[in-house]
Amino acid sequence: LEHKNKRNRKISDSTVEGYAVDMRNGKWTIGSESIAFYKDGYLQNGQHRLSAIVKSGVTIQSLVTFGLESDSINGTDQHRPRMAHDILTMKGELGSISAMDVAVIRLCCNQHKVSVSTVETVYKTLDDTLYFVNSLFPKQDKTNSSVVRAAMVLAINSGVSGKKIETIANILNT
User: Fold this and answer.
1) CA 99, 115, 112 angle in degrees (round to 5)?
2) Nearest to 165, CA basis, from 142, 130, 136, 139
3) In sequence order, what are the beta bridge partners of 37?
4) How far apart are CA 140 and CA 142, in angstroms?
5) How many Å apart are CA 157 and CA 130, to the nearest integer?
6) Which residues contact 67 (CB under 8 A, 6 or more apart)?
7) Cβ distance 169 to 136 under 8 Å?
């Protein structure tokens, strides 16, 4: 990383930390993305994963590609990155999780960035509460943001009755 990573974008510390947490917790799995090197040995793709390996002190399995041409970067995902709700929906284990659900979970965790495995774990814990809170608002409703929904989820988890939350939702919906 010190000598052969001169061409990449700036490293995101929060991304590295999220990956490192997953690696330390045994949640990191091998995916289709390889750590990739150009013909001249410089790193093309994988700086966040490699930095997380160093930070976590954990050994992981990964695909590694060598010998790429310099213009191979043109084909690297750049148009529409997969978001946590996309990945979890693709896994098929949680049904269809929405971007709103992920935003609520991030707020409940008090973190801007939360790894997919953390979202999955928290979602499984809050599934019924999220479903209840989401059912209180029309699907197309943009006025009752993730902040409102997160506050309601946290309130229910702190012992506030669903009936009281429903009353507040009715007021917000009028």
Assistant:
1) 65
2) 136
3) 43
4) 6
5) 11
6) 37, 38, 39
7) yes
Among 47, 38, 40, CA closest to 66? 38
Q: Which residues make Cβ contacts (< 8 Å) with residue 4, sequence separation at least 6?
A: 37, 41, 42, 43
For residue range 7-44, list pLDDT tens digits in order. Answer: 888 888 888 988 899 899 998 888 878 899 999 999 98
Please tell me whether the overall predicted TM-score, pTM, comes out greater than 0.85 for this model. Answer: no
Residue from 77, 104, 99, 103 nearest 88 by CA: 99
Phi/psi at 109 (5° precision): -85, -5
Cβ atoms within 10 A of the Cβ of 108, count?
21
Find, among 98, 106, 174, 97, the residue nearest to 137 by Cα: 174
**Backbone φ and ψ of 146, nearest 5°:** -65, -30
Number of residues in the chain: 174
CA distance 72 to 171: 55
pLDDT digits (tens, 9 = 90+) for 68-105: 988 877 666 665 566 777 777 766 666 677 788 888 88
Distance of alpha carbon 35 from alpha carbon 72, whole angstroms: 13
Token pair 């989401």 is found at 134
